[in-house]
Amino acid sequence: MNADIRPFLHAPTWTWSYVVIDRKSRAAAIIDPALDFDIHSGRCWTAAADEIAGYVRHERLAIEWILETHAHADHLTAAPYLKSQLGGRVAIGAGIRNVQKSFREVFNLGPEFPVDGRQFDRLLADGEKIPIGSLTAQAIATPGHTSDSVSYLIGDAVFVGDSIFMPDSGTARCDFPGGDAAVLYASIRRLYDLPPATRVFVCHDYGAGGRQLRCETTIAAERAGNIHLRDGVTEAEFVALRTKRDAGLEVPNLLYPAVQTNIRAGELPPPEANGRRYLKLPLTSP
């Protein structure tokens, strides 16, 4: 059985979020919701999440899951806010433990910060299936961009996070802690083994060449035309391309705020003695 899918664009971060609906039971899942955040003031607000919540209420949907494709580095997740408003359980790939371990060191969070994924309601192993009403969502581990990256196969649709973008935009970077271009190659080839007509829903689109933003393509289109990894590209060619490209990329603007929050399942860092919350910024010496 196939799902109805309603996309939502968070324009400030070029992020696509989705509500995946089983019309038979009106059960639904939310995938990769974004929290509004201003890095200059530290202000968080929920306009984008409220748009999703408003749609869910209007359609009288029952949220069973809030699914993360990975601990994002380019936006803060709105998962805990939407859980408080709509219910559901927050799930992510089991590889989040490795991401937590890496960034506990980066941010010097100390042994009191748990790195066993307990911040999330569910950690999903490769191949694990969860119900969304009469639908089934299957987790497909797709590491390489990050070690926790996971795609969700639901009916004839797969939600790929950052592993691949629209064909004219290529593939994800692999230079974050735990990233590996050879591993990403294998993950993408695994996605390419899905039926050619499988609908692919991306987490980001940047409108390559000035075209209109899009969120949906197909496995066939990716295999035929992905500018970084189409059929015929070898692992060695992809690794060389990805390594050269990554060396010239800037650090994402929201990397440190986003990761500090997202490894906590979207909860902000705990308040300090003065009652305020703070984000850390690792510095390098001049």
Compact summary:
The protein is α/β, with parallel strands linked by helices and 286 residues long. The chain has helices at residues 47-58, 79-86, 96-106, 181-192, 219-225, 235-247, 255-262, and strands at 4-10, 15-22, 27-31, 34-38, 43-45, 62-67, 76-77, 89-93, 122-124, 129-132, 135-141, 150-154, 157-159, 199-201, 216-218.
Question: How many helices?
Answer: 7
Order of helices and strands: EEEEEHEEHEHEEEEEHEEHHH
> How many structural domains does the protein architecture include?
1
Q: Based on CA inertia axes, which overall geometry fits?
A: globular
**Biggest sheet details:** 6 strands, mixed
Number of strands: 15
Proportion of residues in helical segments: 10-25%
- Across the major sheet, the strand order is 1-2-3-6-8-9
CATH class: Alpha Beta
What is the straight-line distance between the termini? 57 Å
| Helix-strand makeup class | alpha/beta
- The CATH architecture name reads 4-Layer Sandwich
**Radius of gyration of CA atoms, rounded to a whole number:** 18 Å
CATH topology, which one? Metallo-beta-lactamase, Chain A
Could you tell me the mean pLDDT? 97
The CATH superfamily label reads: Ribonuclease Z/Hydroxyacylglutathione hydrolase-like
